[in-house]
């Protein structure tokens, strides 16, 4: 990967792009604080956090001593949680409207059936909110009908029907209040957010991505030894498009790296109007002036594990160099008792990439983000995972 002598990093800037997440950046700061301390204790290095005093910054500083080198890293979370929150404000009837529209877009375009040929996990995750919301609707209808039937003899036809409707509505409201445990509404809003535009980026998100691009571009002029962009979940494909725009503008960028974690790129790139994302995938995959490593794990049922996002999308150029596809191998890198505890906690596992491993191998989030090696040097000469999926599956491959 690197044709020159390894560069020792003393100062690094990290930009973290979260996925479809309504939570504030302090969630990621506290997660980094607790999990980095655990990993440092396991792996035998030192790491500590301090706040960033800059006005308007959503980040923190990391000071770490690893392999005899002292490294300072400045983190910044590139926020779009306000856009997520705005998209999650749909009423209960509107959410069922989203369900119908999203299901139609994925099935009528043929995207759902193509996605099924990749990994089962994310398809189950996509169908889960549909199934749960339909079951909730059926339960509400049955409950409302039952209440109406029981009260019809006492109150008459119309009052009983109104009480039945009220009972059904209250049950749906109760189901929604309990969504913090079952995530059906959350996942429905997530899939509907992208499907509404058939794979294109909404204008509001495009504007935010342009701001992110400018922020990263400024950092490239500030003398950092490495500027590392980390995209998690749906933040992965945002990172691909943001860096593609940046590189088209600048022409060349030294010291720029991209780490994508738990990516769900095919959920977007397989949609008819995702020409922008497909074009960016093809462009970024051939760049010689960056390093791009994609880490997933078969144990993560919410990600397209070990799927080359460029190749499966059907847009691989002849000179494709990236991404390097690696597995976090949860079954091998987590202690058996930890794996047993987390195995069926799908949403927690989807964030494991940002957490500590009892038996870390190639992948250590805190060595990558706070250690003395650039991403490219750390994985120089590393062979990609043998279990990766590379065959083109996408029906929609237009770039224009």
Automatic annotation (TrEMBL):
<protein>
    <submittedName>
        <fullName>Uncharacterized protein</fullName>
    </submittedName>
</protein>
<keyword id="KW-0472">Membrane</keyword>
<keyword id="KW-1133">Transmembrane helix</keyword>
<keyword id="KW-0812">Transmembrane</keyword>
<feature type="transmembrane region" description="Helical">
    <location>
        <begin position="123"/>
        <end position="148"/>
    </location>
</feature>
<dbReference type="InterPro" id="IPR029058">
    <property type="entry name" value="AB_hydrolase_fold"/>
</dbReference>
<feature type="transmembrane region" description="Helical">
    <location>
        <begin position="154"/>
        <end position="175"/>
    </location>
</feature>
């Amino acid at each position: 990967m690197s044709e020159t002598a390894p560069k020792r990093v003393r100062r690094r800037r990290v930009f973290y792009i979260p996925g479809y997440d309504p939570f504030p950046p302090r969630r990621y700061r506290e997660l980094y604080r607790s999990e980095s301390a655990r990993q440092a204790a396991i792996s035998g290095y030192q790491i500590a956090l301090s706040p960033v005093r800059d006005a308007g910054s959503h980040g923190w500083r990391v000071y770490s001593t690893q392999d005899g080198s002292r490294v300072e890293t400045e983190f910044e979370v590139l926020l779009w949680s306000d856009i997520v929150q705005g998209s999650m404000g749909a009423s209960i009837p509107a959410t069922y409207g989203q369900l119908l529209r999203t299901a139609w877009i994925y099935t009528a375009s043929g995207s759902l059936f193509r996605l099924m040929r990749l990994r089962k996990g994310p398809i189950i995750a996509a169908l889960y909110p549909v199934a749960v919301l339909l079951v909730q609707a059926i339960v509400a209808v049955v409950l409302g009908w039952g209440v109406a039937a029981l009260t019809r003899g006492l109150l008459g036809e119309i009052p009983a029907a109104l009480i039945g409707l009220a009972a059904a509505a209250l049950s749906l409201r109760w189901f929604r209040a309990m969504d913090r445990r079952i995530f059906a509404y959350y996942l429905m809003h997530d899939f509907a957010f992208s499907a509404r535009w058939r794979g294109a980026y909404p204008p509001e998100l495009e504007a935010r991505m342009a701001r992110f691009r400018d922020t990263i571009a400024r950092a490239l002029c500030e003398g950092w030894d490495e500027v590392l962009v980390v995209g998690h979940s749906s933040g992965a494909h945002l990172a691909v498009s943001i860096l593609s725009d940046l590189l088209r503008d600048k022409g060349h960028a030294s010291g720029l790296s991209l780490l994508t974690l738990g990516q769900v790129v095919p959920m977007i790139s397989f949609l008819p109007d995702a020409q922008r994302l497909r074009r960016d995938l093809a462009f970024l995959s051939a760049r010689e002036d960056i390093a791009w490593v994609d880490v997933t794990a078969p144990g993560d049922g919410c990600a397209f594990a070990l799927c080359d996002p460029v190749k499966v999308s059907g847009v691989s150029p002849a000179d494709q160099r990236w991404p390097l596809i690696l597995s976090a191998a949860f079954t091998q890198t987590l202690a058996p008792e930890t794996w047993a505890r987390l195995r069926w906690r799908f949403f927690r596992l989807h964030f494991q990439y940002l957490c500590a491993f009892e038996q870390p191998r190639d992948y250590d989030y805190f060595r990558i983000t706070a250690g003395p090696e650039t991403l490219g040097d750390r994985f120089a000469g590393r062979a990609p995972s043998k279990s990766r999926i590379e065959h083109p599956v996408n029906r929609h491959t237009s770039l224009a």
